[in-house]
Write a structure and sequence with these properties.
By secondary structure, this protein is mostly beta strands. The chain has no helices and 29 strands.
């Protein structure tokens, strides 16, 4: 897998060092990664990514970000210190979308190929792939022990559990997209874009143990808080952030954050959530103690995927 030449240096709008921590926001329309200082809520730099970037994650040392470019077969590898990027050519692996950094490597979905791939930044190549045999393999999550990989498959109405070369696809509601693994690693939750419901999968049993009825009109992302007590779901249809009690399986609150709510990022301390508002060209800030929106950050055109970078 070869590295393609980066965009011209003059395209970078880097006026300041990348802070630590930093809020990273992908702007799909601009094809840029915005680096935001979460103290001032100001964009301090912008780095090109490649066409139509959707999801982003960060290396364990906080020095590199990796973004999936959905409209091409590339991943942007972004040096957050130098604020420069290189494009990783994925060859025949098409429509990369979900992305997850774990164990020093970058796991990603190749939606068109119905596969999960793994890119090794140290070796500069894709070193592993596995088929889900499911349609529209979209998002990916990896367990802490690296032994299990979970994907949401929109077109097949399933969640796949990949483990030691095997793949089990669990039937869920229509159009599963948003997905997250509980902090205790016992449950996978997925929200269905087809009916607004949520399927809760027991990881050990590999089966749905509970289905929650219609909670949203068009769920886009679902995230657990770090303590596992709450689940946040963005509703692209209404622009709401829906807060669920993870134990009681009940809605706590519905917060109007803007228009076309998409990506969700929760800070590691669980104090705040950021919600990307694609049509508002902004990111909403939500206080998770008061469950109130406290501000907005103008990040660029078409914000979606986000990540949190802390240098070590």
């Amino acid at each position: 897998m070869r590295l393609l030449a980066g965009f011209a240096a003059f395209a970078l709008l880097a006026a300041a060092q990348t802070p630590s921590p930093a809020l990273l926001v992908l702007n799909k329309v601009d094809a840029m990664l915005a680096i935001v200082d979460p103290v001032t809520n100001k964009v301090v730099a912008r780095v090109p990514t490649g066409p139509n970037p959707h999801e982003v994650d960060v290396s364990a040392d906080g020095k590199f970000a990796f973004a999936s470019n959905y409209s091409s077969n590339t991943i942007a590898a972004i040096d957050l210190v130098a604020q420069k990027e290189q494009l990783v050519d994925l060859g025949e692996l098409r429509r990369p979308h979900g992305i997850f950094f774990a164990g020093g490597k970058v796991y990603f979905t190749a939606e068109q190929n119905r596969m999960v791939g793994r890119y090794d930044p140290a070796a500069g190549k894709v070193d592993w792939t596995q088929s889900t045999n499911q349609e529209s393999t979209h998002m990916v999550v990896v367990s802490k022990d690296l032994n299990k990989i979970f994907t949401s498959n929109i077109g097949s109405n399933t969640v796949s559990i990949l483990e030691r070369g095997t793949a089990v696809s669990v039937p869920v509601g229509p159009g599963p997209e948003a997905i997250d693994l509980s902090p205790d690693q016992k449950e996978i939750w997925t929200a269905h874009s087809g009916d607004g419901g949520v399927s809760i999968i027991d990881v050990a049993a590999k089966k749905v143990v509970q289905t929650l009825g219609k909670l949203t009109t068009r769920p886009n992302r679902l995230k657990f808080t770090p303590d596992g007590k709450r689940v946040l779901i963005s509703d692209a249809g209404t622009g709401d952030l829906v807060v669920i009690d993870a134990t009681a399986r009940k809605e706590i609150k519905r917060i109007k954050v803007g228009t076309l709510a998409e990506g969700i990022l929760i800070t590691p301390d669980g104090a705040r959530a950021y919600v990307a508002l694609e049509r508002d060209n902004a990111v909403a800030i939500v206080d998770l103690k008061t469950l109130q929106q406290t501000g907005r950050i103008s990040t660029g055109n078409g914000p979606d995927g986000m990540a949190w970078a802390v240098r070590k």
